[in-house]
Amino acid sequence: MIAGIIPARFASSRFPGKPLADINGKTMIQCVYEQAAMSQHLDIVVVATDDDRIYNHVLSFGGKVVMTATEHPSGTDRCYEALTQLGDGYEYVINIQGDEPFIVPAQIDELAVVLQQGGVEIATQMIAVTDHDSLFDKGEVKIVLNDNMEGMYFSRMVIPFIKGVDEKEWHLHHTYYRHVGMYAYRSDILAQLIKLPVSKLEKAESLEQLRWVESGYKIKCVLTTYESHCIDTPEDLERLKYNAGV
Questions:
Q1: What gap in Å lies between CA 27 and CA 96, rounded to an integer?
Q2: What pLDDT score was predicted for residue 233?
């Protein structure tokens, strides 16, 4: 069975109260929850929060929610605590970002299908890079893959370097992928991940997944065509609402 868990904190340095922000009469967290609930492969969807306002709000629209500790350093840790409250029976967890109100249910299903094939420790998604600007955008994380479609390295820089070719044409000479940040974990692996100390590569790139790679865990990377539209600021929200015609 697969649990879809949506971490949702009230505190945010750039957008306080973000999960309760209004999007055409619904809150952001309700939008995410309803989209996730339309997945064909999740056996349960639950919000994991540390705030009474979010907790009570999720209950008010009929959603499932659990209260978690305030001091979790990442959504991964919050997901694990939520999983422990759900009880046994969930072999996998998909960490669904609480700040993607326009997430497409089919994108969640793409990840879930790979989990059901068995043998996956951690899975995430990627999308092909087709232009120079996206490739060299340091806000976009690029992935280096092995032959099993597992991430060998994640970086904000462009890897590999292509010798003897103008940088503007690198994307024409090699298939590059950038990370789309939804994660799935096998439940026993998730229990191990939260015990790992912060690693040197993670500190260098500020990317949590490098802690797992550096410790020898395998991250299966699943190709998607769906973009990731995270909301970090009020300006991001207004722009996405405008683009979506909301």
A1: 16
A2: 78
